[in-house]
Amino acid sequence: MRILLTTLNAKYIHVNLALRYLRACCRDLPHTFILDEFTINDHPEHIAAAIYRYQPDMVAFSCYIWNSAPTLAVAAILKKVRPDLLVLCGGPEVSFDTAAFLAQNPQVDLVITGEGEIPFRALMEQLAGRQHPQAGSRQEPLLASIARPAAERFAPGPVPDPAAIPGLAWRRGGEVVVNPPAPLPRNLDAIPFPYQEDLEAAGNDLRQRTVYYETSRGCPFACGFCLSSTTEGLRYFSLKRVRDDLERLLTAGVREIKFVDRTFNANKKRALAIWEFLLSRRPRARFYFEIAGDRLDEEMLAFLDQVPPGLFQFEIGVQTIDAGVNALCNRRQDWTRLAANTLRLREAGSIRLHLDLIAGLPGETYAGVGKSFDAVAALKPHEIQLGFLKLLKGTSLRARAGEFGYLFLDRPPYEVLASSTITYEEMLRLHSVETLLRHYGNSHLADHALGYLAATAFGGSCFTLYETMAAWWEARGLLRRGHSQRDLFEFLAAFAAGLAGPAGMARPAAPGEPYLEEPGGKLEAGHPTPPGAVRPERFYPLTARQLDRFYQLLKFDFLCRDRSRNFPGWVPPSPLTGEERANYMARITAPRSIEKYMPGLAKEAPANLRRHGFIELFPCHPERPEQDDPTLAFFYYGPQGPRAEVYYLHTLPPAV
């Protein structure tokens, strides 16, 4: 048979690990396996056409919350033009409420639930005309736990005996049958290396993609919102197997590996062993790990201090700092230790840190989300993800939805709309905050200016800054369209102008009340606040000096990003004359000055620095904006990256 294994990835650069496991487990069977991947941005009609041209006998889809709707659309098209085509679905989205899924989707013939290696292998053996051996009679340990049926039972249809395949859901006339689950593979080393065919293929496009890899299955925690809570215990690939696999991938030139272990550092000894191996290879690749930040101890932190910059990225799930909310989620977390460890990693500066928050957790209020947001922002991670609770099939929080008053989407991604402690309006506000966080915070577009604005106008609360700015955007219809980088600077400059004035608002504005307008904090009657655009309880109006300092910092951030020198109208004029700037440029691009002040540019020709560099004088050091400390900054716009390389030259003698 011709078996097509496929999925719709979120992005082209992603690769689907599950499909490769299935292919690897059946290499010895007399089927032709074709693996092709699409994305959720492809049109279902185009995907169906591509699959049709392969002329498969069966198509197997890997299904997740982000791709189930377009996947079913593709399957429906294929069934219309190829009624004989066998359509199989597997993956987390179809592993729960499976009978209802099959009943509602006649275009799907079969479903495999849970981990797919054992049931898929059994299905492929049946379709190849083989019979299962007695348990334990095969050399292959992966399937040793599948017993031969007590009697030979054959059902009409394309699969000779679907009732004998554990974990399979199928149709018997008008009835949906869901077989008992398959046993979990216990000896993970028996699962073959999944990327052999990719590495042997001409072109080896894994070098340009994100390769997903796992060293374990399961999780030591049982968080009520996570699918990992549906299985008990942790199972590991052996360290030898992990080292061998990683060696093959790195030798093949893979540049980006994302470990999908739910808690990579659940076992300290294993985590250190794998990290040590990776460092010993001196790789050019990048590695991503999802870790529990509070499970790092001094030995692990001391080792991580040695990691070269850019090699590792850690994703740390904070979700909330509220111990009571965590308890309702059956979740354990030592926030104090997590925060201290994150600060330690941040100060070391070599590991990129991505911290997650979830809005909509049981018992958490809007103010509680803001408190968690500010606590995480104070750690200054490289990225904060403000996510929204999804009540996934099979999780305990979904089963307890009524207890917490949840209103949620009844289709993927099953996102929470409101609960007994947070309203729909408040969730909409948080979505707006998340939009502004992506535009400004996680892009680091204007870190210096935003940090100063949060400290001076919002009492240090980044959350209050973002919610106020989100309301300002909503009032102008800015949230519903795309914007250029230059637009984002313009909006931030105008927003800050609107914070300058004689007094802040003492309470949230109600719909219909006047809304703060720029310039100068003028309150214009007749400009109503739109529903949901609630003002913070208080902001501190910017003085003229503070507003000027903000614009200086925004100018610095703008120069870090924009090499055009086509300055917007809000940019303060330069204190340097053209002659002074030319003199400074000549002096600092002399070889001795480059070596002293800009050693990172020592290999660049002076003429190149003059051609691609720019000098500006600021009234303060951008890292210490509260102090008056005139500082020269040299911006070098080389060929690499979207940001300029910046060198501070405040010790340089005056130009002559």
TrEMBL record:
<feature type="domain" description="Radical SAM core">
    <location>
        <begin position="205"/>
        <end position="434"/>
    </location>
</feature>
<keyword id="KW-0949">S-adenosyl-L-methionine</keyword>
<dbReference type="InterPro" id="IPR058240">
    <property type="entry name" value="rSAM_sf"/>
</dbReference>
<keyword id="KW-0408">Iron</keyword>
<dbReference type="GO" id="GO:0051539">
    <property type="term" value="F:4 iron, 4 sulfur cluster binding"/>
</dbReference>
<dbReference type="Pfam" id="PF13311">
    <property type="entry name" value="DUF4080"/>
</dbReference>
<keyword id="KW-0479">Metal-binding</keyword>
<protein>
    <submittedName>
        <fullName>Coproporphyrinogen III oxidase</fullName>
    </submittedName>
</protein>
<feature type="region of interest" description="Disordered">
    <location>
        <begin position="509"/>
        <end position="534"/>
    </location>
</feature>
<dbReference type="InterPro" id="IPR023404">
    <property type="entry name" value="rSAM_horseshoe"/>
</dbReference>
<feature type="domain" description="B12-binding">
    <location>
        <begin position="1"/>
        <end position="134"/>
    </location>
</feature>
<dbReference type="GO" id="GO:0031419">
    <property type="term" value="F:cobalamin binding"/>
</dbReference>
<dbReference type="InterPro" id="IPR034466">
    <property type="entry name" value="Methyltransferase_Class_B"/>
</dbReference>
<dbReference type="InterPro" id="IPR006158">
    <property type="entry name" value="Cobalamin-bd"/>
</dbReference>
<dbReference type="Pfam" id="PF02310">
    <property type="entry name" value="B12-binding"/>
</dbReference>
<dbReference type="GO" id="GO:0003824">
    <property type="term" value="F:catalytic activity"/>
</dbReference>
<dbReference type="InterPro" id="IPR025288">
    <property type="entry name" value="DUF4080"/>
</dbReference>
<dbReference type="InterPro" id="IPR007197">
    <property type="entry name" value="rSAM"/>
</dbReference>
<dbReference type="GO" id="GO:0046872">
    <property type="term" value="F:metal ion binding"/>
</dbReference>
<dbReference type="InterPro" id="IPR036724">
    <property type="entry name" value="Cobalamin-bd_sf"/>
</dbReference>
<keyword id="KW-0411">Iron-sulfur</keyword>
<dbReference type="GO" id="GO:0005829">
    <property type="term" value="C:cytosol"/>
</dbReference>
<dbReference type="InterPro" id="IPR051198">
    <property type="entry name" value="BchE-like"/>
</dbReference>
<dbReference type="Pfam" id="PF04055">
    <property type="entry name" value="Radical_SAM"/>
</dbReference>
<dbReference type="InterPro" id="IPR006638">
    <property type="entry name" value="Elp3/MiaA/NifB-like_rSAM"/>
</dbReference>
